[in-house]
Amino acid sequence: MLNSYSTADKVLLAVDCIIFGFDEDGLKILLIKRDFEPEKGKWSLMGGFLRKEEVLDDAAIRVLNTYTGLQDIYMEQLYTYSEIDRDPVERTISVAYYALINIENHNAELIQNYHAKWFSVSEVPKLIFDHDNMLSHAIRRLRYRTSMRPVGFELLPEKFKMSQLLKLYESILDKQIDKRNFISKINSLDILIKLDEKDMTSSRKGSYLYTFDKEKYDAKLLNNFALNF
Amino acid sequence: MLNSYSTADKVLLAVDCIIFGFDEDGLKILLIKRDFEPEKGKWSLMGGFLRKEEVLDDAAIRVLNTYTGLQDIYMEQLYTYSEIDRDPVERTISVAYYALINIENHNAELIQNYHAKWFSVSEVPKLIFDHDNMLSHAIRRLRYRTSMRPVGFELLPEKFKMSQLLKLYESILDKQIDKRNFISKINSLDILIKLDEKDMTSSRKGSYLYTFDKEKYDAKLLNNFALNF
DNA sequence: TCTTTAAATGTTATTTTAACACTTAATTGT
DNA sequence: ACAATTAAGTGTTAAAATAACATTTAAAGA
After folding, report:
1. Which chain B positions have a beta carbon within 8 Å of A36's beta carbon?
2. Chain A residues close to B77, C-beta within 8 Å
3. What Pfam families is this protein classified in (chains A, B) (predicted)?
4. How many CB atoms lie under 10 A from the CB of residue A228?
5. What does the pLDDT look like over A147-202, one tens digit per residue?
């Protein structure tokens, strides 16, 4: 019988979070060293089980908050993974989410307690279970998102240099982008505010700082466009 | 405690299938009239519960096969829905899949047994639970897919007219497309084989039939491209 | 004042896209 | 037989977007 609630099997549902950050070294993800069996001591995404009275989005937020102390974070559901033996302990279905966070804003203490560490996406160690698979899926999704919607507000500090934004796009798309073409395309989106302020730390000339125009940025987030670098 | 398998809640996991088809009237979806409570008699997507020993993809395939008799169908996981009260009987998380099928190939008898019916996407009745939401999500996804990868092989009969392919694109994207521009773009993809055969049923002049070059089609399916109509 | 360093800035050729209308092949009706 | 009908088939051009490319500038430090 297809549709009997009472006889249907129940399963464990987990959420796992792929947490992206960005700093001067490029695109990073946050991993934790598992402190329980199985695979204790191995690197892993941050995860937890869904609770009965909780929706998946909230479970993902809770997991992220538990490990990083962060709230109000950009998250998106990625995919649901259900291979029978993906978790060797017990059949567990996992819904993956990815988050974009500003590395400067996270709670370093919490991260230390959980033995968490930022890794460059190009230098990620072998992860437990099917987390490698989730990560590569998340990177593909982030690349796609970057070509269809603006990115940066979630990952950069409030004030940033154009060269930082360029580097962010280059690390996400994993390719070189012509500086002049990049600037004119970004400017055509009309989502940046150029400040009078300069950052003098990185060059003698100094470079202007920018912020995102949050309203225009959010408007662009809603309507997909194609931005080809 | 975040990670205790033994104390974590278990939940019911369902799959629901959004089944797209295409005929002379345009893009359609297959719905069933529920023959059990709750919401008996209302229109609904096809669904079923995940079994303990089954992966989600297989559950979606099983549900589709049960209602249509079809096998070897193009399906993609869409999204996982977890609102607390989305199913009034019991907390149920549902993983939605969408399928593209050739209407001509389905098993009409099975569909009759289950009181299934094809609806034009523009004339879909109110659906149970959050199925309306799933459907609009699926349409968005299908539109996106259509702009990034070829579509048609899964939905059209083996031999088809160029005008059918055009109409398929127009119904998916819900807009008029210039015939000449369409043909030159489709030809530039190099996925069609023009047959010597003509279909004489629709016009005095007759129109050439085409098939997809399956190998080239599948190759394009893997690498996203942007096709702007 | 000369050197150094990253920042800032525009132009042009190429490619892609969008807009647009007439001819053709065959059948049907007179 | 020929005129009318119907959907099929076919190219050109203007506009827009993209990609390629190099020099100048502002300030600090030697």
Report:
1. 3
2. 79-80
3. NUDIX, WHD_NrtR
4. 6
5. 999 999 999 999 999 999 999 999 999 999 999 999 999 999 999 999 999 999 99
pLDDT at B78: 98
Which chain B residue's Cα is nearest to A80? B80
- In angstroms, the separation between the Cα of residue B182 and the nearest Cα of chain A is 19
Across A66-99, b (16+ Cβ under 10 Å) vs e yields ebbebeebebbbbbbbbbeebbeeebbbbbbbbb
Q: Which residues have CB under 8 Å from B199's CB, separation 6+?
A: B159, B161, B206, B207, B208, B209
For residue A176, count other CB atoms closer than 10 A to its CB: 9
| Interface touch A79/B83, C-beta < 8 Å | no
Nearest CB partner across the interface for A50, out of B11, B49, B228: B11
Look at B49 and A9 and tell me if their CB atoms are within 8 Å.
yes
Quickly count helices (H) and strands (E) in chain B.
Answer: 6, 10
B219 CB near a chain A CB, below 8 Å?
no
Mean pLDDT for the stretch of residues B152-158: 97
Dist CA B136 CA B153 (whole Å): 22
Q: What pLDDT score was predicted for residue A226?
A: 83
Alpha carbons within 13 angstroms on the beta-carbon side of residue B46 total 29
Packing angle between helix A179-189 and helix A162-173, nearest 10 degrees?
Answer: 100
pTM (predicted TM-score): 0.95
Nearest nt to the CA of B208 via C1' is: D8
Mutate to test the interface with B, among A12, A13, A56 (most CBs of B within 10 A): A13
Q: Is A208 on the interface with B (CB under 8 A)?
A: no
Tell me which chain B residues have a C-beta less than 8 angstroms from the C-beta of A2.
47-49, 63, 66
A31 vs B144: CA distance, rounded Å: 32
CB contact set of B14 (below 8 Å; sequence gap of 6+) = B47, B48, B49, B50, B87, B92, B93, B94, B95
Report pLDDT digits (tens) over B38-71: 899 999 999 999 999 999 999 999 999 999 999 9
Nucleotide nearest to B206 (CA to C1'): D8
* Inter-chain CB proximity B9 and A50 less than 8 Å: yes
CA–C1' span, A216 to D22, in Å?
Answer: 33
Q: Which amino acid is at A136?
A: S
C-alpha torsion angle, residues A41, A45, A49, A53 (rounded to 10): 150
